[in-house]
User: Fold this.
Amino acid sequence: MIRELRKIWKSCFIGLLWFLALLWPMTGINSDGTLTFARPLEIWLIVVVAAVVIMLIYSANKSGMLAPFTRPVQTAAGGLAGQAARLPIWVWLLVALGLAMFYPVIFTSRPAHDVAINVLIYISLGLGLNIVIGLAGMLDLGYIAFYGVGAYTYALLNVYLGFSFWTALPFAALFAAIAGCIIGYPTLRMRGDYLAIVTLAFGEIVRLILNNWMELTNGPNGVLGIDRPTMLVPTFDDGFGFEVISLRKLYMLYYVALALAVFTMLCVYRLNYSRIGRAWEAIREDETAAELMGVNTFLLKLLAYAMGAVFAGLAGAFFAGRMKFVSPESFTFLESAMVLCMVVLGGMASIPGIILGAAALVLMQEWFREFETYRMLVFGGCMVLMMLFRPAGLIPARRMGRRSEDDE
Amino acid sequence: MEVFIQQCINALTLGGLYALIALGYTMVYGVIQLINFAHGEFFAAGGYIGVLLLGVMTAMGLMESAPWMCLGVSLLLTMLYCAFLAMGVERIAYKPLRKQTRLAALISALGMSIFLSNGMMLARGPLDQPYPLEYSSGGFEFGLITINNLQIVIWVLTAVLLVALNLLVFRSRIGMAMRAVAQDKVMSALVAINTNRIIALTFAIGAGLAAAAGIMVGLYYGSVRYDMGFVPGIKAFAAAVLGGIGNITGAMIGGLIIGAVEVFGAAYISGEYKDVFAFIILIAVLYFKPTGIMGENIDDTRV
Assistant:
């Protein structure tokens, strides 16, 4: 035990020295070529103190000194989890839905609504991407392109042809699905990492086209003046009729986003347990075997792309309607990476996991907004740490049926 | 005709730089089947350290007397720095994940990429850092065609590094060990190859090449920025895939093709869509030849 700890302390010490060696040239040389020592040392000392504190806690925990404190907490948590597991699942769903329904009543501030809408959009995106990655097992690094296609479909149909949100919505889904097929078709022969780079390339191509097609998309300036989603409300002024109102208040948009997210959740849930879902899972596990069992891998893989794209397209149309403005800036690779992170951090193919992942990442961005410049640094670091300590995600997916590796 | 030859010269320069970056991707992929997204950041770090070292030498007054020696020294130091950086990144972010799924390592690499580029932004600020301009002045003129000194330096450096790398990989014991690890890690461990050390070395060599490319790009375009690693990183990765990932000769050819497509596309079709051409060529090649031009050099049974 002591020997193990000494080894860890030693590698920690070497790591810190290595960090200093890397840090000093980056921060210690001024632009005019003079050298400073104060700034790198200051940063380094902060890191050293943090590392030593973490290591002390870790060593104490390993050698059992913290057991009097951690054990009661562990038993209590275990008891709670046991109680929670005994409740039927519909109670949880009801509680979650109730909370979601009354969220705008509980939190009335604008930022709270903004954050909630963002979370819901990302839940839709994450669940859509989950079809491609989690179910069919194809790595897609250009997923945000479909979101962009959806957003621009609504934006252009609305601005040029005056389509309303609800009439444009099917078109957004359709065009996104077509884009999914266009991207999917040539990539289906590829596997693994070739797929990753080709989807990434397609994502960039879509963004560059949006950025450069000045006549249609107004280039980097974006499309302005998109109408908000509308809704038919019954009125009784002169007899019975319907009045079209624009959803101007943020909480109304929240409910549209909630409907979208719940729709996506239901679809993905049903797909997951359908024949198609099983076929996707078979393709993910072993494509050759799946094909031998009579699964039409070509069509189903194309379908996975198209289905994933549909949900991104719907979310994109909503995004355009909510922001009233779209520009290619919103559809960069970083966004794709972000959605991918949500899926992987939450737990692939696990719907509650992805919801949690989306919420966690959006909230993390919000919390670190105060440390604006450090936000992405911490974000990147957290991604690495998550993978190191919980690579299967926050809520790993439970797989259907029994399989041989479970018995070992 | 003059324009065409001039564009060929530019394409060769750019292609050589892409090839240098692509080698890092392809070597790492060949050994541990990981898309090292942080590789573009090694390239950017190389650009930064290069400009800082040149700045130090200017302040010490060495620049006037021996500018090319200064460049050589900064180049070596920068390659060393990035090699250290890459070994550290590998140790922290990739090594513990070797037994996990490949997606976990990929996410970790993405996280590392975001972390490093933002770290550089915090350290050096979000603005462009200008490179000294004196290297790009001077050169040869043949009628309308000009080749400046810097382009020649880039060609020579690229050629030297590529030849050195080929010798290292195909003629030395270390190279043999690297190829063995790429083929089968367990077996190479059984024949007493320290696989961990070989993997770290692969990262270090790849990052060193990327660092050299970083300095050259900085000199060629006149400045570096914290986020400059991203787009060249993707294109270099595209080059690696185009040539057949895991295949060192393929990465060189892929780099040259991507460079040529970009330069000629920008010159003859449309400057705004130059990135699109590179990607379209990539998709087209992969559609008709899914393992890249030279074929991949990895064992297919484990992928």
